[in-house]
Amino acid sequence: MLNNSTPLAAKSAAQPPEQSAIVDCALYIDGVRQPGNRNYAEALQAARRRRGFVWIGLKEPQAAEMAAIAETFQLHELAVEDAVQSRQRPKVERYGEMTFLTMRTARYVEHDELTDTSEVVETGDVLMFIGEHFVITVRHGDASRLAPVRSGLERRQEVLARGPWAVAYAVADSVVDMLLEVATGIEEDVAAVEDQVFNPQRGGRRDAGRIQRIYQLKRELMEFKRAVLPLQRPMAGLVTGQLADVPDEIRRYFRDVGDNLARAVEQVLYLDDVINSVLAARLAQVSVDQNNDMRKIAAWAAIAALVTSIAGIYGMNFKYMPETEWVFGYPGVMTLMVGGSAALFWGFRRSGWL
Question: What pLDDT does residue 136 have?
Fold first, then answer.
């Protein structure tokens, strides 16, 4: 536990933050938000006295302010360190009576056309400290805003009355719903790229289904996978109660979140297979196009070689050469060049080389 002697707490006392990261702090009694403005310390005391809980929302807190909050709520220093930093792997950890939950968030970035540098997926983090009389949500990035979650949950007093774990469920449900929306958006992009690759008339052979765009979409999908796939184990632990003491009535809600997460995982794996197939198909098309180009070059080189060889022979300045004194020598050689070239062209065209 943190106390006044910890380095973070000392830093907090010496350097208070200029701008607070606290977006909202509210006291809830029997699922009803209590009126008035309280600081988190007063709200925690009231929650313990009146058997309610405090919900604090933070947006990218600094170490100093987070240390002061940790001292008040007796948060473990390792969890506090993770909360200050972003890019945390999804996990559930127990620290005494407190549970620490982290999730990666994602948001689909709207765009008119997929380019070589398009940002398709924007990611962030949501971390939660869940105790008996409090829940602290920490958000990094704008991929998943929690203000709509709070307002929606406040209209469901029967759910909110079940305590901090009801907040944890609502936040997790919102994050997973956003993952499903991102998967749907990426699926549309993959379908568009697939259509370009297998329908080269749309935009021309050279521009359709460019490998750079496919690879960019592949990278965005990999970023999305890092938000979805690692969340399976923490969510399963919450549903079964192995990783945290989730109340039985809340586990049913988490089970629904787990089902939605399973759908997102299935979509991600399916899209990964499709984009890999599209990339392989495009690479095969590029190889075929290169082979076709090489065959055309070789065919024209063979035609030019015929003309060059004839001209080269009769361009040699030997005294004794056949047909050099023939009156029809020039027309005959020209006829041979044109006829031979035409025959080669017809033969290459018939075989598909031209």
Answer: 96
How is 23-67 classified by DSSP, letter by letter? EEEEEEETTEEPPS---HHHHHHHHHHHT-EEEEEEES--HHHHH
Which string of DSSP letters, residue by residue, matches 151-175?
A: HHHHT-HHHHTT-HHHHHHHHHHHH
Render the burial of 203-220: b for 16+ CB within 10 Å, e for the rest.
Answer: eeeeebbbeebbebbbeb
Instruction: Give percent above pLDDT 70 in the chain.
Output: 85
Q: Which residues contact 145 (CB under 8 A, 6 or more apart)?
A: 139
Going by the DSSP 8-state scheme, the letter that residue 90 receives in this structure is: P
pLDDT on residue 11 = 40
Question: Does 45 score more than 80 pLDDT?
Answer: yes
Tokens linked to 69: 């909050």
Instruction: Name the H helices within 51-146.
Output: 63-73, 77-84
Find, among 273, 274, 275, 109, the residue nearest to 181 by Cα: 109
Q: b vs e for 113-136, b when ≥16 Cβ sit within 10 Å of the residue's Cβ?
A: ebeeeeebbbbbbbbbbbbebbbb
Tell me: the pLDDT tens digits for 293-329? 787 787 788 778 877 777 777 666 666 666 666 666 6
pLDDT at 1 over 60: no
The Cα 166–Cα 137 span in angstroms is: 13
* Residue 128 exposure: Cα atoms within 13 Å on the Cβ side: 27
Numbers of helices and strands, H then E, in the chain: 11, 7
What does each C-alpha distance from 128 to 49, 87, 183 come to in angstroms? 23, 14, 24
Pick the range with the lowest mean pLDDT from 29-43, 110-124, 196-210, 300-314: 196-210
